[in-house]
């Protein structure tokens, strides 16, 4: 399909808000003149105050200084495309970033972009999802602006049988990004739940369009709990956030940038060297790789066994307790068994 580079999406954050916020954030220590703002965002000098007001309505604290201009009081942790793209220069994620304050599901949008021919590396971000989706038809809910809610469009030149590796390498990237911010070492529960002390703070939903012998495109949707101060009661035992674990507020912007840089590295390594380095890294950081007693629920069946490494395609090997040999688990729910 021909690539369309100028796809615009209804509902994305206005480019002028993005430019204004980036301008004020990057000049946070000074007062920026109304004239400069007017010129940068492409509006009249009279209209500047209206755009400042729009920003304030979004919760951004901007102080007006009579005659001199405006000054941002606190740089908000909003995942603005221009702030991100400056920092992601040299990666495929810098070029096409679609930001929404509210959207149904970033994965749904990214899948549509994929169908429309949007290019590799395009990214969809949302402060809030109204119909976030999780694996196995579950829903994914996350408090507004508290976590990372992001979907990345990938066009890997691989056969669908290797698609599970995409999921693994996104999980590795998320794990490595978080590891730099927490004292305890994060774990990965195959295929891609990222855990701290056994509780999940990040999940990944990979969806794709493929022909029998090639992936047309894949979308990796990442939901990371970052600054939530508590989890819904029904999830308290199994889910957590970085803030709950560390007692500190974390910058979503910095975390996402780190995650995407790690992803760029793992993705290139995968394309250049194949699955071996990804599997090796997974074996280093996931306690589920080998020798873990697990309960697997897949294809309507539940069984227990012990993990026995991964196939080159990223599929999990489990030696069944019932003596029926080693089962290859393509997808399913994995839980630690007691
Ligand atoms: C899971 O662990 O079940 C996967 C959760 C994936 C959630 C993310 S949030 C961003 C993207 N958009 C969605 O609708 N889902 C994924």
Which band does the percent of strand residues land in?
25-35%
Number of helices: 9
Runs in which pLDDT lies below 50 for 5 or more consecutive residues are none
Strand order of the largest sheet: 3-4-5-9-8-7-6
Bound molecules: biotin
Rounded to an integer, what's the Rg over CA atoms?
22 Å
Mean pLDDT: 94
Query: How far from one another are the termini?
Result: 50 Å
Q: What's the SSE pattern?
A: HHHEEHEHEEHEEEEHHHEEEEE
In terms of structural class, how would the helical and strand content be classed?
alpha+beta
How much helix, percentage-wise, in residues? 25-40%
The largest sheet is:
7 strands, mixed
Give the overall shape, derived from the CA principal axes: elongated
The total strand number stands at 14
